[in-house]
């Protein structure tokens, strides 16, 4: 079993235990909305693309809203959970993405649900799953920090340090290091730094510049 499927099963259990109307780390989205997003992403990507193109206020996406409306009752919510739990078939392109395209999505959204009410307690995940997650983080981090005014590296105990963005001069070494468990680094890299158990180190000037830039994104 791929790690994405392990994480899907864990996320399904969390969806069933959570209050569907509870907030998540995704601005404007409840647990119910986030569940709908995952189903829409995997089974109706065109609707997701149209919603994104329209640039709606978060929580007011027209097509996603219509899907979420089907889950207003307990039975409807469970039906949507079951649809997500069933996964994607062999002809669905999302299946082809494997851990490289799905694991990070599932882990981050799992924490969106868990930490939406302020809980920052980390889960204990298998070392293999954390290694697979770490493998996929540099690409996302390079995209996230491509316009950061200071250089950035990511680090995790036992997994080393990886430079993901050079300082604008192109000559200086990375100015700040974002360190933590792979899940915490994933939250930071995906724009959820306030909910992450992360340590940012570097000179006072450079860390201040990083935090100011991150707060304004």
Molecular structure report:
There is one protein chain. The chain is an alpha+beta fold and 217 residues long. The protein folds into two domains: 3-115, no CATH class; 136-215, no CATH class. 55% of the residues lie in helices and 9% in strands. The chain has nine helices and four strands. It has helices at residues 3-17, 31-43, 45-54, 62-69, 74-85, 93-115, 127-144, 182-189, 204-215, and strands at 152-156, 160-165, 176-179, 199-202. The chain has a four-stranded mixed sheet with strand order 2-1-3-4, with helices on one face. Helix 2 packs across helix 5 (74-85). It is globular. The termini are far apart. The model has no long low-confidence stretch (mean pLDDT 92). Residues 9-89 form the Mycothiol-dependent maleylpyruvate isomerase metal-binding domain. This is TIGR03085 family protein. Pfam families: MDMPI_N.
Provide a quick synopsis of the model.
This is TIGR03085 family protein. With 217 residues, the chain is of the alpha+beta class.
Tell me about the largest β-sheet: 4 strands, mixed
Number of helices: 9
Task: Give the domain tally.
Answer: 2
First CA to last CA: what distance? 37 Å
Strand order of the largest sheet: 2-1-3-4
Mean pLDDT: 92
Strand content bin: 5-15%
- What's the helical proportion of residues? 40-55%
Return Rg in Å: 18 Å
InterPro entries: CHP03085, DinB/YfiT-like, Maleyloyr_isom, MDMPI_metal-binding
Organism: Arthrobacter silviterrae
Pfam families: MDMPI_N (PF11716)
Protein name: TIGR03085 family protein
């Amino acid at each position: 079993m791929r790690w994405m499927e392990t994480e899907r099963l864990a996320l399904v259990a969390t969806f069933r235990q959570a209050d569907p109307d509870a907030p998540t780390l995704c601005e404007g989205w409840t647990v119910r909305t986030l569940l709908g997003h995952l189903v829409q992403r995997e089974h109706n990507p065109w609707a997701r693309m149209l919603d994104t193109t329209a640039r709606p206020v978060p929580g007011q996406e027209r097509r996603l809203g219509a899907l979420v409306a089907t889950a207003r009752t307990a039975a409807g919510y469970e039906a949507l959970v079951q649809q997500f739990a069933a996964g994607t078939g062999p002809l669905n392109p999302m299946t082809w993405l494997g851990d490289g395209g799905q694991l990070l999505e599932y882990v981050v959204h799992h924490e969106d649900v868990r930490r939406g009410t302020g809980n920052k307690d980390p889960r204990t995940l298998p070392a293999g799953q954390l290694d697979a997650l770490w493998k996929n983080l540099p690409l996302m981090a390079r995209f996230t920090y491509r316009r950061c005014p200071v250089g950035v590296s990511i680090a995790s105990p036992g997994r080393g340090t990886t430079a993901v963005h050079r300082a604008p001069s192109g000559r200086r070494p990375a100015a700040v290091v974002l360190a933590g468990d792979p899940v915490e680094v994933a939250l930071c890299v995906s724009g959820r730094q306030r909910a992450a158990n992360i340590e940012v180190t570097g000179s006072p000037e450079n860390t201040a510049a990083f935090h100011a830039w991150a707060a304004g994104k």
